[in-house]
């Protein structure tokens, strides 16, 4: 089995974190611990205490506990906690958002995988209207590929007609939360 623990920087409690991460299960389970924005949102004292915990806990040698740090913005690479994590990580990776020509190349490749072709103006239109949201780009390209007749090129006109230009965030969870708060503007 797998035991999933997810912690956010907002309202972080080291005592709770420590007890849950170090808790031993009756069953032989692996733990996946996800830490959201710890390097960018925790204050210096919290980071220092967390560093001390990781140094003492020895999780870097554990095959039963995997800790993932997810940062929504770039952390301070000079911080002690960041340096410790880099030094003691089995693997780390930085996922950069695609922009410019890399994004346009991705769009062309995705269109090709969908079995269609696209004109340069339509590529630029998709990139500028949607940006680096690859999931949404994939969905819009799939829609455009179905719309154009087989062997026809996706043109700027189809992008303008079919792609929602508003850039709305259709996150169902945010919508439900807004409904619960009776926030009609957000809904």
Automatic annotation (TrEMBL):
Residues covered by the DNA polymerase III delta N-terminal domain: 13-90
Organism superkingdom: Bacteria
Keywords of the record: DNA replication, DNA-directed DNA polymerase, Nucleotidyltransferase, Transferase
GO molecular function, one term: DNA binding
InterPro entries (UniProt xref): DNA_pol3_delta_N, DNA_polIII_delta, P-loop_NTPase
Gene Ontology CC: DNA polymerase III complex
Protein name: DNA polymerase III delta N-terminal domain-containing protein
GO BP, sorted A to Z: DNA-templated DNA replication
Keyword Membrane among UniProt keywords: no
Pfam families attached to this UniProt entry: DNA_pol3_delta
């Amino acid at each position: 089995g797998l035991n999933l623990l997810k912690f956010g920087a907002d309202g972080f409690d080291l005592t709770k974190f420590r007890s849950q991460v170090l808790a031993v299960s009756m069953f032989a389970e692996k733990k996946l611990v996800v830490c959201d924005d710890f390097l960018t949102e925790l204050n210096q004292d919290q980071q220092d205490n967390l560093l001390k915990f990781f140094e003492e806990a020895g999780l870097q040698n554990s095959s039963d506990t995997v800790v993932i740090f997810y940062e929504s913005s770039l952390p301070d690479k000079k911080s002690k906690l960041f340096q410790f994590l880099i030094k003691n990580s089995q693997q780390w990776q930085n996922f950069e958002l695609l922009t410019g020509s890399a994004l346009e190349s991705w769009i062309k490749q995705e269109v090709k995988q969908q079995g269609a072709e696209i004109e340069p103006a339509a590529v630029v239109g998709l990139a500028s209207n949607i940006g680096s949201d690859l999931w949404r780009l994939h969905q819009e390209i799939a829609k455009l590929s179905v719309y154009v007749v087989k062997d026809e090129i996706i043109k700027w006109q189809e992008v303008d007609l079919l792609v929602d230009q508003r850039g709305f965030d259709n996150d169902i969870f945010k919508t439900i939360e807004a409904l619960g708060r009776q926030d009609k503007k957000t809904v």
